[in-house]
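If you are new to this repository, start here. Below is one unmodified record pulled from the training split, so you can see the exact layout before writing a loader.
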Amino acid sequence: MEARRSLFVRSIAWIALVTFVPTSCGSRSGAMHKPGPLGAPSPMTDRVLQQTKDLPSGLDMRVSDGKQGKPAYDRANLAPATKLPDAEAEALLKRARPIASDPADKQEVALRAKSQPPPRTGQVVKGAFPPPASSLLPPAKSSESGKDLKVLRWMPEGKVPLAPELSVTFSQPMVAVTSQDEAASVNPVTLTPTPKGRWRWLGTRTILFDPGPDVRFPQATTYQVEIPAGAKSAT
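And here is the target side for that same chain:
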């Protein structure tokens, strides 16, 4: 008897449980989600999940219709103005307070000392141009003019181990101030023996013999220098 009662009770409990589960599940599912009509879009279809790694590199630009802004303000156009009559202008000026004068307002302009000019390269020669007429006169006669022509100095002299050149200086100008080629045509000096070289003037009073390709006169030789009588200067 006890075994039959226990089996009967279990059967009733199982039937009750099977009946209760579909009912309870159906009511909850109806409360949480209401099925929509077939073919309707899901609210999640517009939201597509995109991973950052799947996006293309660069800028993402979206173009949309813009709105026209306000036109630029033309500041060249002045507002209309009306000229006031003299009476109204005087009335406005009388309403203004007079400008107070302060003795400290009038002050002398304080100027700092001027800066020194930058230094100039070279030498500045101050003079009038054209020069005065007194400076255009011919030069005064030399103290040696009118005197006899003399030889002031010569080199070398006597026995010397080396003679790089020969020079003779006169007391008066012997040639005019001209080119070296023209001056070389005047040669009042005779050199015996005459080695290779050439004569040239240093100024107008000194004549010099240059040995030319050699740096000196040949050694072990006695040279004689003579100025013939009747030699004349340029003056």
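Two things worth knowing about this chain: Residues 108 and 169 are 71 Å apart (CA to CA). Residues 26-33 have pLDDT under 50 and may be disordered.
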